[in-house]
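Let's sit down with a protein and look at its sequence and fold side by side. Which protein we use is up to you, so please pick one and set it down. Label the sequence line and the structure token line clearly, so we can match residues to local backbone shapes. Go ahead whenever you are ready, and we will take it from there:

***
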Amino acid sequence: MANPVFSNSPVFGDPKSQAGPRSGGTVYADSTATHSTVDAATLDQMYGAPAATTRDTGRLTYDDVIMKTGGLLALLVAVGAVTWVVAPGLWILGAIVGLVLGLVNAFKREPSPVLITLYTVAQGVFLGGISAFYEASYPGIVSQAVLGTLAVAASALFVFKSGKVRVTPKFTRWLILAMVGYLVFSLLNVVLMLLNVGGGDFGPLRSGGWGVLIGLFAVGLAAASFIVDFDAIKKGVEGGAPRKLAWAAAFGLIVTLVWLYLEILRILAILRN
């Protein structure tokens, strides 16, 4: 038998090897009966065994996603705290490295735990440094931004679990178009800042009341992105996706969390200004 799975199983073994000792071509009945009893008992034990779970079969589970996301989030916070205290000026390096690794991870066909972990470290350096500068200018703003981020993420999860928002192809297309438009708008704002056009602490397009409205729109996009992420994870678990995709799911959630935190931080700073 070519398949080793069948070859190693007593149920699917070669009948000749299971027969009793031969003498002149005669098979002793008591040996045959003994082997038949063993085979029947083994077969009955297999049928009585509990069904294999998704973890036993190497499939994606909610626990996998929660553990990976929790681990990356803990790493992000730890690196951010160290950067805040030791070298907040490294936030620029963290931003550049995080951007590059984020793009690499986003376009990889297979998730890379190493690259995703390095991305989290880079983002921790970026967030730790930038948060230190915001806190120095606006005391208490970081804790408010963290609470706001957790509140929006929890609300998105609640709305998704309630079933009040369905992730349809139309909803997904709308979200993609809105995010592309917001990205172009943000890049334009950065260019105007570099050219010193229009002034404003956060760029000419992100200051004052207009900046608050744009920030709230971005928070809404991040919340919608969370809902799409949750739906994708649900479909992956129910569809029996490979367990390694838990890294991809965790990466997506971390990206959205970082984006949401930065938007809320900017909104609070504009209001303080």
